[in-house]
């Protein structure tokens, strides 16, 4: 199409200077556009018919596609769908598999937003969830499965106890019944662990965390292994294998990629949590340094966790990188290159100590986020998990003195100095409390 240079003021203000010269930028171009012009009458029909080319950003965008290819490659998957947030990734991944009357089996140790989605939003659609407390007991997963079960769900490394999921064991239980395992791999990142290599069928992430890495944007991603098998699982997912009058099924058109093709074609664009191409660009930029950041963050976290565990003010440190952790052996065999950088520390002085610690930190930032280049702290019992009962807190490993740390890339000495003075502040707050009570 040639550029229009004539016409009235208003015509020219919308038509002149809207395309860029053809050149090859080194950085990923940001196709910040609602849609794309069709090159011909037939191209439009081909787009709406066979899905050729680009039409509208909610159904496809070159910047978003590029980041999806990067993530599919790093997770070792067949295909990825990028979404507007991690919550959107979980919602879309689940809604692609379940229907009213379906049942989900989930680890108890999951992100609070995911739990809300299961126990509130999906429950209201007639989709029930059974939670497995002891995620290391294969029989507990097996017993929870019903004829209506359509998905198993867990997190590779779970807050707050930092338990590493035995993905191979849980995936095998699902496989025996034709049920896919979804693993939320936000805490491990594909650099440390690739769940699909251990038998998971689908990986989801909050890309807002380590993938973007600098806390500037929200995003989410779903990566599928592309190994949907209609002969084994087709009866569980009739919407993937059933063909309408004259229209071939998703399975007939996409084979093993049926699940993710269905998400791209019928779930994500209808519910509509489309990522901005600008967000996609920033996530792509972030991923270019993922391995370097996660290596450094993991090294810092291991040093910080070991240092904290030796301190008299500390009751316990739940970090899979420490030999004392119940899932350390599993972490050693399944994680490569580090143990991640998010974990919890529980102070002996309970709530007053935790409050004083949070109020004293200065290198570490007090906020609800994780996986950032900056170190962060949050007090789960009064924030993210404030609505849970004391019994639930106990199951989850959240005590009045528990703090969640997400260790960044800062110089280790500066982190230890900050922690040292924050622990001193915590200890003095506890002494003041004791003095008042005495
Ligand atoms: C943050 C997070 C989510 C939700 O992601 P958003 O991008 O905040 O929507 C889901 N799972 C885990 C493990 C998370 O940490």
Biggest sheet details: 7 strands, mixed
Cα radius of gyration in angstroms: 24 Å
What is the class of the largest domain in the CATH system? Alpha Beta
Numbering strands along the chain, what is their spatial order in the largest sheet? 1-9-8-7-4-2-3
Percentage of residues in strands: 5-15%
Mean pLDDT across all residues, rounded? 95
Protein name: PLP-dependent transferase
Keywords: Pyridoxal phosphate, Transferase
GO molecular function, one term: transferase activity
Cofactor: pyridoxal 5'-phosphate
Please, could you describe this protein's structure?
This protein has 438 residues and is an alpha/beta fold. The chain has two domains: 56-287, Type I PLP-dependent aspartate aminotransferase-like (Major domain) (Aspartate Aminotransferase, domain 2); 290-437, Aspartate Aminotransferase, domain 1 (Alpha-Beta Complex), CATH 3.90.1150. 42% of the residues lie in helices and 14% in strands. The protein contains 18 helices and 14 strands. The chain has helices at 9-15, 41-50, 62-75, 86-95, 112-124, 138-144, 167-176, 189-192, 230-233, 238-241, 250-254, 258-271, 277-287, 290-309, 328-334, 350-360, 390-396, 412-437, and strands at 79-83, 103-107, 128-132, 149-155, 157-158, 163-164, 181-184, 202-206, 220-224, 314-318, 342-347, 365-366, 376-378, 402-406. Strands 1-9-8-7-4-2-3 form a seven-stranded mixed sheet, with helices on both faces. Helix 3 (62-75) packs parallel to helix 13 (277-287), helix 14 packs parallel to helix 18 and helix 16 packs across helix 18 (412-437). It is globular, with a radius of gyration of 24 Å. It starts with 8 loop residues before the first helix and ends with a helix. The relative contact order is 0.11. The mean pLDDT is 95. Pyridoxal-5'-phosphate (PLP) binds at residues 85-87, 111, 113-114, 155, 184, 186, 206, 208-209, 218, 220, 370.
